[in-house]
Amino acid sequence: MLWTALAGLIFSLLNATMRWLALELHPFQTQFLRYLCGAMVMLPLILRSGFASYRPNHWPGQLWRGALHTLGLSLWFIALPKISLADLTAIGFTGPIFIMIGAIWFLKEPARWDRWLAAILGLSGVLIVVGPQLSGSGGLFHLIMLSSSPVFAASFLLTKILTRYDRPEVIVVWQSITVTLFSFPMAWFVWKHPTGIQWFWFLVCGALGSAAHYCLTRSFEVSDISSTQSVKFLDLVWASLLGWLMFSDIPARATLIGALVILGSTIWLARRESRRRLEGR
């Protein structure tokens, strides 16, 4: 759960930067360069350990995961510059629900009532925060963003399966490689030469993205995927703290109330999971 919380913090930093870049360049090019730079950042680690140490044991799974993640990213990047951050955040938090359903149906993980209750309470906290800000008109880009959630859920479930065969760092490396390759044809037709400062921030995003996916993959490796999903709602807390520290945004009362609900559900489930592990259940 700590790995998941750390991944959420890093993803919050990444998303703030990526939204600015997606407003400057075409979303497909932004997607390609983010993962290209992610692969470039990890290249020194690969060279130091040798390519053989990063050869996956499950090639088909790595390719399928890359294809699924590319599809989800394409939908996400198309909608990213077109809808508000409040709407984006609310829609993005539907992902854990899809993951928990998929984990129970496809991975046969136990459908424990406390995990469902923690997820529902966490989602309720998110709605308390963003509910007053959501636009009522919806629209095409909201539907596109929503459609990315089950695709990402499928990608993360496949990641959980791949942890049985490959180390987390191998999975992260091949995600960057496969998404870069699958994204290149889309980026080619909309290419615009990035500026020097844009290249710098793409490299920063590459490092942040690789670190976040490593943390997330480690969490999938050591725990049931459904038990970590309520922690995803802490992403809203990270976003509020970053807004206060970086932009002097004062959280609204609804944000504070929602954050307390999210924290309460997360701490409660963490204590139950810890007790269950100690009891060997």
Describe this structure in words.
The chain has 281 residues and is mostly helical. It is built from eleven helices and no strands. The longest helix is centred in the last third of the chain and has 27 residues. The protein is globular, with a radius of gyration of 19 Å. The two termini are 18 Å apart.
Quick take:
This protein has helices at residues 2-24, 27-49, 59-79, 85-92, 95-106, 113-130, 140-162, 168-188, 196-222, 235-247, 253-279. Helices cover 77% and strands 0% of the residues.
Principal-axis shape equals globular
Strand content: under 5%
Radius of gyration: 19 Å
Written as H for each helix and E for each strand, in order along the chain, the element string is HHHHHHHHHHH
Tell me roughly what share of residues is in helical segments. over 70%
Subunit arrangement of the protein: single chain
Distance between the termini: 18 Å
What is the residue-averaged pLDDT?
Answer: 80
Largest sheet: none
Structural class, from helix and strand content? Answer: mainly alpha
Q: State the low-pLDDT regions, or none.
A: none
What is the overall number of helices?
Answer: 11
- Number of distinct beta strands: 0
